[in-house]
């Protein structure tokens, strides 16, 4: 991915706090009594952490769109700037929107085969008994394409591309990979007869009223959007405002937020949809959806609570966004922001009871033999409230994902509420 080279250098930390409110007569808006105190504690924590990590700038926006005027809470740490900055993979959400608008116009279908649109594309592997890769699989990162088993050069619609070898059968497993959105950008170019960046700059950003944003000429579909906090707030409002002139249809919106692979049979948790990560409760009822952009000196998080008409944005320019210390800070920050958002909304987060549970609540569902398409077998057993792969104890990450020192992340997959398969970084096994 390429990003604007003019990133902010380390500077002395400046902390400022801005508070903008709507009219006091707006009775729809209420914060909890303890919000101000929690906000002060949060501000102090952020200031301390970014000083330790030497992060030059952090911006946080919490926006409530329930009233006649938006109620916006801003926190800025570091030098203030209005210059557009890279948001890395947040770009994918606009690429997905552009694709969905083409579906809405009838120019494209979610179940269209990629090979029918892009001549020369070959992705599905016969040895995996894989179905053809379709548009929805690219949008949802369930194409099975992921770096790891090598790349194959293919001439696709007249342009050479490096396509990863498919690792898992089409549609069986979510795995985040930029190649899916590189292909979606090529599809947009093919059906609009317009270069991707030009199409996004001329036909998508104006509709969203993102006046201070632009796509760089080398934008890939997975990255390349340059924007501002102001425009990100406008973009967040677009998704919340279902009456926006450019909003996608209700049916397509529901499709966009539906799970792309069956989540574990638990009352609340997280699943992946077309583009977004979704927090759900009460039988897949959407509580929030979010997307992150992360690259060198770039981290941006956009999280939306559709029923509450509320969302928050976090942006920063860390020197090492993939380092352990920063990853830990980012995880803690999202937890604290989620808690602060609940206080801002004067409500209790319905997902808290779920996330308070110990991971691996479905351990007894997973034991058994698993067989790969090549005939290899693995045995998973349950003993002393732990799960073992052979003799190795698996470390639970959440309800259906575990960590193995030998294999990395091990994910158990569900179909009709039953475990039917197990997937790792490079392999796929069917439960016998």
Short overview:
This protein has 432 residues and is α+β, with helices and mostly antiparallel strands.
List keywords for this structure.
432 residues; alpha+beta; Beta-Lactamase; 3 domains; 9-stranded antiparallel beta sheet; 8-stranded antiparallel beta sheet; 10 helices; 22 strands; 28% strand; globular; disordered N terminus
Write the layout of secondary structure elements.
Elements: E1 15-20, H1 35-53, E2 58-64, E3 71-77, E4 85-86, H2 91-105, H3 114-117, H4 135-139, E5 151-156, E6 159-164, H5 179-192, H6 196-208, E7 214-215, E8 225-227, H7 229-240, H8 250-256, E9 268-272, E10 277-281, E11 285-295, E12 298-305, E13 310-316, H9 324-344, H10 352-356, E14 368-372, E15 377-383, E16 386-389, E17 392-393, E18 395-398, E19 401-404, E20 408-415, E21 418-423, E22 428-431
Antiparallel strand pairs: 1-3, 2-3, 2-13, 4-8, 5-6, 7-8, 9-10, 10-11, 11-12, 12-13, 14-15, 14-22, 15-16, 16-17, 18-19, 19-20, 20-21, 21-22
Helix pairs in contact: 1-9, 2-5
**Unreliable parts:** 1-29
The number of helices is 10
Give the count of structural domains. Answer: 3
Number of strands: 22
Sheet with most strands: 9 strands, antiparallel
Instruction: State the distance separating the first and last CA atoms.
Output: 41 Å
- Neighbour order of strands in the largest sheet: 17-16-15-14-22-21-20-19-18
The share of residues in helices is: 25-40%
The CATH C-level name of the largest domain is Alpha Beta
Mean pLDDT: 85
Please give the radius of gyration in angstroms.
Answer: 22 Å
How much of the sequence lies in strands comes to 25-35%
CATH architecture of the largest domain: 2-Layer Sandwich
Helix/strand class: alpha+beta
